């Protein structure tokens, strides 16, 4: 029985369409910079917010009406939910999805029972993938919800919890591999500390490094060749998470010899919690050859926590897609909608409105970013701004052929610094407005 029988497959109708169940900007086959929109964006829908989120918050229970869910943790209910999920994926023309192990399969009374349940649901996921052609962008293990992880998973002070986390990741990797997952993600929700008085930070980080090396080794054993990803976040639920931003992650990876095995899965709301813009995080990861994937959402600037809202701001999506294009795209990653409808948007159709709007926003952002790049409007200005390093003393500085004494000799002869090029921030912001208006 169809869960969305009254909703057709969402089609592209163009910018003039007034149909809320149609794409205005996302045309999967439209070519941009030599690739289709579908190839550039690689849209993915998350299982957790979309099919396990209920609209609950700290002040009240869930509000969402989900006719397909009987409210139990039975295997049959989990399997039925998976079938409903693929109906939504197909109707949104989403080529990918992503999950945590405990999203798709409820936890049993023991690790063995949990693994058995996971396998039973994975059977249905595999059937639905083969039937629909929808692929798994990435899998991961939820090592933050169960109370056993109160002190962390790989960074716990309890060796048995570390062992349980390893066993859970092993199984999640096996299922991800079985389902053809193109990536495997680590989000260390509890990998951090609340207070240093009770924390051995070096020991915890050493353990985290060992844990990741175990994952790399096991991937080789089972033949999993997908990309490992770390998702940075600075705080919440812990006060200080070890994977706080892109720079902290890269420092950690290099310190433990993992930089050749991991890239980053960046999220907009996590970037802003870290005090950065999403384009900062993408550009930093890109210049480190570590841009892997993105979680596409946004936060509310009036609220100080991770609200995971759907992104519909053209400025945000333009900036995001501009820097993704700058660094050659997302590779095996994708634009993953780690976003949830608001508590008040409780009807199933709201899931469609939310995804359609954000898919359109990223598609338009892609078009705007490509237009700016085609005119070399920003990169051309940046090149001119730094042109003093293209020749003379600047070229020697970049080549490493001069030292401080040479710089002193140069400046004693030159006498004074000439005025530099204006930053032209306001002009560039106006320029982006022009392209947003034009596309």
Describe this structure in words.
The structure is a single chain. The chain is an alpha/beta fold and 439 residues long. It has 2 domains: 28-374, Divalent-metal-dependent TIM barrel enzymes (TIM Barrel); 379-438, no CATH class. 46% of the residues lie in helices and 11% in strands. The chain is built from 16 helices and 14 strands. The chain has an 8-stranded parallel β-barrel with strand order 5-6-7-8-10-12-13-14, surrounded by 4 helices. A two-stranded parallel sheet has the order 1-2. The protein has a two-stranded antiparallel ribbon with strand order 3-4. Strand 13, helix 11 (314-326) and strand 14 (335-337) form a beta-alpha-beta unit. It is globular, with a radius of gyration of 24 Å. The relative contact order is 0.11.
- Number of separate structural domains: 2
Q: Compute the average pLDDT.
A: 97
* β-sheet strand percentage: 5-15%
Poorly predicted ranges (pLDDT <50, ≥5 residues)?
none
The portion of residues assigned to helices is: 40-55%
Distance between the termini: 41 Å
The CATH topology of the largest domain is TIM Barrel
């Amino acid at each position: 029985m169809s869960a969305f029988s009254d909703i057709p497959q969402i089609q592209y109708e163009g910018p003039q369409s007034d149909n809320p169940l149609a794409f205005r900007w996302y045309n999967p086959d439209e070519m941009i910079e030599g690739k289709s929109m579908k190839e550039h964006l690689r849209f993915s829908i998350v299982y957790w917010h979309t099919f396990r989120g209920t609209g609950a918050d700290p002040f009240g229970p869930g509000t969402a009406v989900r006719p397909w869910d009987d409210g139990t943790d039975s295997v049959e209910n989990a399997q039925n939910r998976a079938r409903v999920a693929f109906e939504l994926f197909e109707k949104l023309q989403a080529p990918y999805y992503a999950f945590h192990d405990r999203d798709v399969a409820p936890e049993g009374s023991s690790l063995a029972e949990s693994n058995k349940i996971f396998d039973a649901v994975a059977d249905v996921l595999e059937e639905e993938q083969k039937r629909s052609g929808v692929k798994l962008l990435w899998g991961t293990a939820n090592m933050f919800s169960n109370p056993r992880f109160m002190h962390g998973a790989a960074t716990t002070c309890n060796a048995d919890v570390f062992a349980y986390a390893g066993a859970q990741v092993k199984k999640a990797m096996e299922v991800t591999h079985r389902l053809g997952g193109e990536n495997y993600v680590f989000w260390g929700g509890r990998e951090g500390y609340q207070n240093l008085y009770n924390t051995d930070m070096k020991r915890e980080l050493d353990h985290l490094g060992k844990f990741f090396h175990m994952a790399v080794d096991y991937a080789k054993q089972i033949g999993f060749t997908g990309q490992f990803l770390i998702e940075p976040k600075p705080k919440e639920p812990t006060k200080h998470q070890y994977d706080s931003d892109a720079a902290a992650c890269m420092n950690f990876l290099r310190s433990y010899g993992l930089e050749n095995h991991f890239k980053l899965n960046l999220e907009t709301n996590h970037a802003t919690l870290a005090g950065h813009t999403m384009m900062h995080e993408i550009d930093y990861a890109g210049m480190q050859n570590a841009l892997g994937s993105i979680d596409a959402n946004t936060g509310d600037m009036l609220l100080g926590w991770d609200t995971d809202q759907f992104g519909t701001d053209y400025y945000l999506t333009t900036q995001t897609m501009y820097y993704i294009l700058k660094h050659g795209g997302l590779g095996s990653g994708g634009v993953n909608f780690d976003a949830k409808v608001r508590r008040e948007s409780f009807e199933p159709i709201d899931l469609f409105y939310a995804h359609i709007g954000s898919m359109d926003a990223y598609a338009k952002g892609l078009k705007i970013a490509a237009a700016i790049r085609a005119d070399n409007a920003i990169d051309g200005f940046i090149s001119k701004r730094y042109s003093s390093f293209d020749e003379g003393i600047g070229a020697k500085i970049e080549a490493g052929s001069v030292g401080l004494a040479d710089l002193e000799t140069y400046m004693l002869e030159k006498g004074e610094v000439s005025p530099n090029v204006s930053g032209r921030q306001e002009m560039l912001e106006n320029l982006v407005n022009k392209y947003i208006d034009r596309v």
